[in-house]
Amino acid sequence: MRRRLRHGLVGSFSKNREGKRRVKDGINEKTGIHYALQAVKKWLQEDRKHTKYCVKMDIVKFYPSVDREVLKEQFRRKIKDQDTLWLIDTIIDSHQQGLPIGNYTSQWFSNFYLEGFDHYVKETLGVKHYVRYMDDFCLFGNNKKKLHQARKKVEQYLNEVLHVRVKNNWQLFRVDDRGVDFVGYRTFRDYCLLRKSTSLRIARRTRKMRARGKPVFADAAAVMSYRGWLKHCDAHNFMRKHLLTVGKTQKLKQIISAESKKNLTRFFSDMPC
């Protein structure tokens, strides 16, 4: 319980500061998969000239590769309160290497770790359209040679300043030839599709659901999650074929609500007096 409280306090602190620091992507300063998707959609539709090419990159084993001493120094440049720094150091040092995947604070710490990198790409390299979600990021431009130069400088910065490496499978391509595969979607100038591997996984899962007949809690939760994903892309036919046949929305919500109430009751009954 104490560990969860520590992570909650620091996570809330980091989240409150994040909006003040984030580099604007041209739409807003919010974060999340679908805000990243909306940024890419907006650029492809409204600025064809500066989105002719895209270089897509991600970092090798990012969480385990985070240099903890660099991260601590970054916090010390922003925070002067010694008690807060002690708490942050305690959480960082609770894991043997890098940041632990799954900790509440890890996603905030990782974004904080890459904050300077975001400013470097936008302000020093002058990349007009740049978007990052966790350790995956895309740079757009109208000159292939300049994007290659930016890619090399990005790799140098990440390696020398943050001590992390870019994967060798980076891609530089014409956007009109293939669209942009990013944050689970394939975005083109005039439409957006769900990533093929995700579509196949959903189709397999819903076939099993229909074969079982009456949906259970896990089925209902999965279907509602899938519907949330699909509403951000052009997938009306896919939705009708694979998801609307599993069960009506109201029924699925009732299943989720009933199970949530059971879990809540069980949680409070197990708490010590």
Mind explaining what this structure looks like?
By secondary structure, the chain is an alpha+beta fold. The protein has 13 helices and 7 strands. The strands form 2 sheets. A 4-stranded antiparallel sheet has the order 2-3-1-4, sandwiched between helices. A hairpin with a 4-residue loop joins strand 6 (185-187) and strand 7 (192-194). Helix 4 (68-78) packs antiparallel against helix 5 and helix 11 packs across helix 13. It is flat and about 55 Å long. Mean pLDDT is 87; it is low at 1-9.
Lay out the secondary structure.
Layout (H helix, E strand, L loop, with lengths): L1 H20 L11 H14 L6 E6 L3 H4 L2 H11 L3 H11 L13 H8 L1 H10 L4 E5 L2 E6 L2 H17 L10 E4 H4 L1 E3 L2 E3 L4 E3 L1 H17 L4 H14 L5 H8 L5 H22 L3
Antiparallel strand pairs: 1-3, 1-4, 2-3, 5-6, 6-7
Helix pairs in contact: 4-5, 11-13
**Computed structural class:** alpha+beta
Number of distinct helices: 13
Unreliable spans are 1-9
Largest sheet: 4 strands, antiparallel
Tell me the span between the first and last alpha carbons.
15 Å
Amount of beta strand:
5-15%
Mean pLDDT: 87
Beta-strand segment tally: 7
The topology string of helices and strands comes to HHEHHHHHEEHEHEEEHHHH
The neighbouring-strand order within the major sheet is: 2-3-1-4
Helix amount: 55-70%
Task: List its salient traits.
273 residues; alpha+beta; four-stranded antiparallel beta sheet; three-stranded antiparallel beta sheet; 13 helices; 7 strands; 11% strand; disordered N terminus
